[in-house]
Amino acid sequence: MVKRKQENNSLNSTILKGIAASGIAAMAVASFAGSASAESLLERIKNGETIRLGFSNEPPGAYPGANGEPLGVLNEMTLDVLEKMGTTKIEPIVTEWGSLVPGLQAGRFDIITAGMWIKPERCRNVLFSQPIAAEKGALLVPKGNPEGLHSYQDVRDKALTLVTGAGYTAIQDAQKVGISDDKIMQVAGPPEIAQAVKAGRAAAGALDYFTATGLVKKDHSVELADSFTAPANYPAVAFPLNQQAAVDAFNAALKEYIGSDEMMVVFGKYGYGRANLPDGSKTADLCKG
Length: 289
Fold this sequence. Notes:
The protein has twelve helices and 13 strands. By secondary structure, the chain is α/β, with parallel strands linked by helices. It starts with a helix and ends with a helix. Mean pLDDT is 88; it is low at 1-37.
């Protein structure tokens, strides 16, 4: 009996050791998996891993090519900077403008390259790089500008409807000058803005200058309101709130890139010039409003 008990004890000991060893192995695997999942965006860039770019279909700022490749001035500039940081592996993810910030927060993509303007309300939800360019918005009107519109104030004073994209800062800009919410039509994006103006459902459309210019080149039934007055806006690349190290590294590479011959080739390709280079405004100040 004693011998049997000793054998049982020995067996139990062996089983316990096996369980312990398995537990240690499991912990090691879990630790490794946790370490991998906790890898920062900057580490992934430096390691040459695939970085997912989120943007909407809004040429010439950012849009997908025939094979889904990321095109547009903001996309191409971002690709140049990321290459300097260590990676050329990119996965483009196209979504509607209003889904960009929620998508970034949900981890659907790593950065937003849609040319999003730096605004205080956005700075609460994303981290912006330093400005990549400076641009003014535009007012899209029917050919001949029959209502004589040159500002948001003109739209307000004539009690007309302004159309813009859902999530665009033009909504806040229009509200600030007193255009009532029932006179602000929100649609999915630039094609819908142009269609609303053409169909007479809105007297004018508000969007960024270069996207508006692209629409006018394709459709001569609309034009840009001449002498449109609006403050400059500053597009930038947006990162998740917990990726400050990636933002800092991106800004360091961007500093050497801004105004370079390499950048101006990309600018020129899409109709931008030196007048559209950042004017020295800083993200920290723009986030304060």
